[in-house]
Amino acid sequence: MEKEMMDDSIEGCISCLSDDCLLSIFNKLESESDRNAFGLTCKNWFKVRNIARKSLIFHFSFNAKAYKEHAQCLPEMLARSPYLQLISLAGLNELSDSALYEVGVSGTSLQSFSLYSCSGITDDGLAQVSIGCPNLVIVELYRCLNITDLGLESLSQGCHSLKSLNLGYCTAISDRGISSIFRNCRNICALIISYCRGVSGVGFRGCPSTLSYLEAESCMLSSEGMLDISSGGGLQYINLYNLRSSAGLDCLGGVGSMKKLRVLNLRMCRYLTDDSVVAIASGCPLIEEWSLAVCHGVRLPGWSAIGLNCNKLRILHVNRCRNICDQGLHALKDGCVRLEVLHIHGCGKITNNGLALFSIARPSVKQMVDEAMSIGPSIEDLFRLQ
Fold this sequence. Notes:
alpha/beta, Leucine-rich repeat, LRR (right-handed beta-alpha superhelix), 13-stranded parallel β-sheet, F-box/LRR-repeat protein 15-like leucin rich repeat domain-containing protein, Leu-rich_rpt_Cys-con_subtyp
């Protein structure tokens, strides 16, 4: 009887506490068992648990009905969870700008926001988020096809703390929007602009030295733009896989001014010539991994420059390079003193004898036949809230 009276007394005291006090108690409970025990004595348990929620993740579904249900219940979920730090709405094609109203109203705690493939969101929705979420450090707008330079300007004006931004397949943006990001977000570290063919690179002029990671697959970067991309001086990783050229010319010489570069993916850059390879090999002394797979324009002068200058190169990809021959392999054998892995297959001009001589001279170099589609750090790690 005394225990029942004590339990009733505790429950009565807890019931008198405000939501803020209950939330403070809840947040100080570290173990799940303690939180569950607290829930048994708290009449407002479900309300407190919702308020304390730190993340909200909607998983991608191919079910059209699920799309609509998620979009409809989202505003209520957001209203009940004012202290969210992470929201992921990936794949909600039915999501409209109005669904983001609550994010703008109570998003001061929000640090990571993903609208991955939310093609219904426009600049107006992004503006609502930008105004109400000043502490965002991670934003993913991959395949948000209706986001334009105006949306990026709103984002940059409201979210000065941005560090990681994914704009892959945002086909309506241009250098103007990129320039506004760099002008207002001076701590940005990682940027993805893959398949944004309206970006030439000149919007990178004056980019901050904090920018160390750039994904620009299948972009249409110009020679001038490439020089502007290197202007910040901090790039350590750059992916230019399948770089396009409206003029049909090699525009990659500017990469040679990236002194801190460590990982470079030039796979399928068909306009690449020896001139740019020589500039990169001599101008990027820290490079550790370099993919030149399917780069048919690299010939003996390029391979010789790599062997002569790339003293820190550990991993080299030369898969399906039509113009690497025994002499080129010989140049790599005599140089690249730290080479550990050579991805090589489908190189028709290399003979069995040439490959055997390389193996004898450099037995510690592991020869791989696989062709890596991507290299360097994981994108997921760069866009994960710490």
